[in-house]
Specification:
Largest sheet: 6 strands, parallel
Shape: elongated
Number of helices: 17
Distance between the termini: 29 Å
Number of strands: 11
Radius of gyration: 26 Å
Structural class: alpha/beta
CATH class of the largest domain: Alpha Beta
Strand content: 5-15%
Helix content: 40-55%
């Protein structure tokens, strides 16, 4: 964790991935992030994966590291009033609200702005018209699964990574900070709505995918693990290991040929086709069906342990396919000796390495990581420090079941 956002207070009323990931990123850069949940936990409090013994959500404790937690009975007017009061509490670096609650209702921007005109609210949405959606349904709608998978399969293929959720969370953090910079200059608040559907659609537009289908009049075909527009594919080694190999730049291409000792064979193919693979990455893609057998034969003659040093010395770009278990327990660069991870004891009772911020602030020491809170762990603290309630008032709220 770093202190770049020290002094900021962000109130989070959100569930699932996009909203909580935004709050996580802000907390890991130093912001005080106060998450409010329903008493007993919100809809993501028990979400899988779960700890084998306690059935605590590993997902929840992963996305809420370093935050503060207050548990409120949001079904009651008194509880809703507390949530509004916390979100709109005074302070020059407060009044920042992150949510995926509906546009209307008691946490609408209009309702909050009536209490604090300069409030900045960032609202995660499914569809941009307010309709419900999650990452998987948006992904199906924009067509990515229809382009994913083996060429001989008609079935769409989803992937397990919630890319649109994670991109939306990061984009929400960016928009919140942009609005805060403006408020510091103008005093203006802002209502920001970030829909998964818009993040997906605009991302595909930025990458040229929208222009591609409009220009060609057709969809990009499925092509398995082939890299679109350049040279790349998975290859099987003699020992059964499978490597993903990519050659985009001339240096990567030449290094790969040298490592596999196939430069002469490829040169003969270039002469036959009138192609220059070293200079033209698109030619490598266009003629991949002629190139792949040459590479596959060479990979099949060697074990991965033999190929690794050759590929490294040649400057090739590659990686061995491995399971997440193999990576977590055996990969030094990713997990075992990655300084981004720190061993913590979590609310589930398990002790395991947890990640801090992915960015490295060069020259600055990293602060110790803080685990996710117990549900409602900071209820009294938040009521006392944010709303300035005394112990008697807090005790009354507890006795009446408004907070826990």
């Amino acid at each position: 964790m770093y202190g770049l956002l020290d002094g900021l207070r962000v109130v989070e009323g959100a569930a699932f991935i996009a909203g909580p990931s935004c709050g996580l990123y802000l907390a890991q850069m130093g912001a005080e992030v106060i998450r409010f949940d329903a008493i007993g936990g919100g809809p993501d409090f028990r979400r899988w994966p779960i700890a084998p013994a306690s059935e605590d959500s590993l997902y929840w404790e992963g996305l809420n590291k370093g935050k503060k937690s207050i548990a409120i009975d949001l079904s009651r007017p008194e509880g809703r009033e507390l949530a509004i009061a916390i979100a709109t509490a005074p302070g020059p670096e407060a009044g920042l609200f992150l949510t995926n609650y509906p546009i209307g209702g008691f946490l609408s921007h209009c309702a909050l702005a009536a209490r604090r005109p300069d409030i900045i609210s960032v609202r995660v949405m499914g569809w941009n018209d307010g309709s419900s959606a999650v990452d998987y349904t948006i992904n199906a709608a924009v067509g990515v699964p229809m382009m994913t998978g083996q060429a001989d399969s008609d079935r769409p293929v989803n992937h397990m990574l919630p890319a649109w959720d994670l991109m939306t969370g990061a984009y929400c953090a960016f928009t919140l900070m942009a609005a805060l910079l403006r408020r510091r200059t103008t005093g203006e608040g802002a209502e920001l709505r970030v829909a998964l559907s818009d993040v997906a659609a605009t991302s595909l537009g930025h990458l040229g995918n929208v222009a591609e289908v409009l220009a060609t009049g057709t969809n990009r075909p499925k092509m398995g693990n082939d890299l679109f527009g350049a040279f790349g594919r998975d290859f099987l080694c003699r020992d059964g290991a499978r490597l993903m190999v990519v050659a985009i730049t001339p240096r990567q291409w030449k290094g790969l040929l040298a490592a596999l000792d196939i430069a002469g064979t490829v040169a003969s193919l270039e002469q036959e086709l009138g192609a220059d693979f070293a200079r033209d990455e698109s030619a490598r893609f266009a003629h991949r069906e002629r190139l792949f057998p040459i590479f596959a034969s060479s990979f099949a003659l060697r074990d991965a342990a033999e190929l690794g040093p050759l590929l490294e010395s040649g400057g090739a770009t590659w990686a061995r396919y491995q399971s997440l278990h193999e990576a977590v327990t055996g990969d030094v660069r990713l997990f075992l000796q990655n300084p981004q991870f720190e061993s913590l004891t979590h609310p589930s009772g398990l002790t395991y390495p947890a990640p801090g911020p992915a960015a490295v602030l060069a020259g600055a020491p990293r602060r110790p990581l803080v685990p996710a809170p117990l549900l409602g762990e900071h209820t009294d603290e938040v009521l006392a420090t944010v709303l300035r309630l005394d112990s008697g008032a807090i005790g009354k709220l507890r006795d009446e079941g408004v907070v826990a």
